[in-house]
Amino acid sequence: MSKNYIYAETPDDLRILVGWTADDKGAKLLLNLEGIQIGIDDVSTGDDTVPVDTRRFFMTRQQAVLLANFLYKMSGETPPPRKRGWLTRILGSSS
Q1: What are the Cα distances from residue 42, in Å, to 19, 30, 49, 61, 70?
Q2: In contact, 39 and 13? CB cutoff 8 Å
Q3: Beta bridge partners of 17
Q4: Three-state DSSP class for residue 13
Q5: Neighbour-count burial of 88, counting CB atoms closer than 10 A to its CB (0-12 exposed, 13-18 middle, 19+ buried)
Q6: Cα–Cα distance, 95 to 87 (Å, whole number)
Q7: In the beta sheet, which residues pair with residue 21?
Q8: Model pTM score
Q9: Along the 95 residues of the chain, how does pLDDT read in single tens digits?
Q10: Residue ranges per structural domain of the chain
């Protein structure tokens, strides 16, 4: 079995995603990704808390949809079914 290796320029480049939020800013969305650095060891200070780094990204709604579909595809999951339009709900579906 082969191992999957992740290469980074420096150890600071890799983070573990621990949370996210999104804010509606009208035509755009503000995506906040929260992560912790891999391999942080604060044994010298005796502090058990790990600093959370927040990265913010502005994106259009179309970019958000593309990102969501990409993540569904990469994870092997299927996106939720689309809601039927109002006309289809009223008239019913022939399929």
Answers
A1: 21, 31, 8, 39, 36
A2: no
A3: 35
A4: helix
A5: exposed
A6: 15
A7: 32
A8: 0.66
A9: 456 666 667 767 788 999 999 999 999 999 999 999 877 655 555 667 778 999 999 999 999 999 999 999 999 998 888 888 888 878 876 55
A10: 11-79
